[in-house]
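Open question from group meeting: does this chain pack into something compact, or does most of it stay loose? Before anyone orders reagents, we agreed to write out a predicted structure and look at it together. Recording both the input and the output here so the notebook holds the full record.
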Amino acid sequence: MPKGFVYILECSDGTYYTGSTIDLEKRITEHKNGLGANHTKKRLPIRLVYFEEFSRIDEAFQREKQIQGWSRKKKKALIEKNYDRLPDLSKCKNNSHHSNVVSTPLNHHETALVAERSRSYTSNGKLLLTGEYVVLDGALALAVPTTYGQSLKVIPIQEPKLLWKSIDDKGNVWFETEFELQPDGSLKHVKGDETTQRLLQIFNAVKQLNSNFLFNNKGFKVTTSLDFPKNWGLGTSSTLINNMAQWAKVDPFELLALTFGGSGYDIACAQHNTPITYQINYDETPKRVQGNEKRTITPVEFNPSFKAHLYFVYLNKKQNSREGIAYYKSLAEDKKPVILEINEITKQLLSCEEFKTFQNLIDTHEALISKVTQQKTVKTLFFNDFKGSMKSLGAWGGDFVLVCSENDPTEYFNRKGFTTVMTYKDMVL
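Structure tokens returned:
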């Protein structure tokens, strides 16, 4: 079997493309000449920023799939050789983390032993750009995965326990608990608080979907790690649910329904590395369609030429999405006309080429949701003097807002007491 290479390219729009090949020089030349993948041919010029060499192409292919599942933040850390940010990777590859040094891949027996000892799962964070609230009633929504996400690592242990540890974006432990693991796979908490009870609820829901989960296992040490502050509202819960579903081999949308609830767009973002449109399907009644056609998830091309003028600003308060959803559902107004308008706005945003047109669509969307939820827009409430467009994202009243501005608005928001201002490129995967 020929040797192989894993490589990462940086495209003209700042996105990363990960691939594998048996001939690195030839493949990079193909990419540069527009003969590579669809992603790179539309984003020329490209440049090689990282590569690893393997003695077997199948090992390179496995490594490619691993890196493809990482967030932009993790890929950037790998490219910049910030290996202290990649503890799992360092343990797996030891001292072979050099982009131009041949690594020593594990043989198949060793690989199986490592897989048996530990498993890791990663999910992307999310931002809902259009369709907040009305996505629950079948509106076509545009959502983007973020460069920030959450990982979950599972290591078998010899004790009949499940030891849980959650680590924040600073590397600090923010939650820790343990359960007794029963022979039937059920859990009994030894000590715990409200968060422990919530976690136990998730495990119980998993057992409903897969009764064999954790059955006849000795024990596990589980560690979750966030890339973003917990109060940012980028999907602390949804990324956990998606990671848990991967571990337990259950449907993450069903697991979400049994635990936190919601439309499910956040689960779709956790699984996709590109922007998506998301729509819940209903029949005429309008009763939700049953079976595998409950939702339509479509990867889309959303890469506005004016994205340098798009920013995300954190409003310093994590919004409780469940409270927002409950309030929305309590409203009796007929939402069908608004849903049709939101659908059209979403479609127009996807093909929008002019910044001014984009701003007008954002303003119209904001006014529509303001009317249907009977809430004032965030610009009216806090930023009436801002020269630019602004739109709430997700549950109104907290989390991030999308800001459209000709000039960098960081100084303006800092004066107002909002110090987290991020560019589109840094936030969106």
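Observations to bring back to the group:
Residues 4-112 form a domain with the GIY-YIG endonuclease fold (CATH 3.40.1440).
The CA atoms of residues 40 and 271 lie 21 Å apart.
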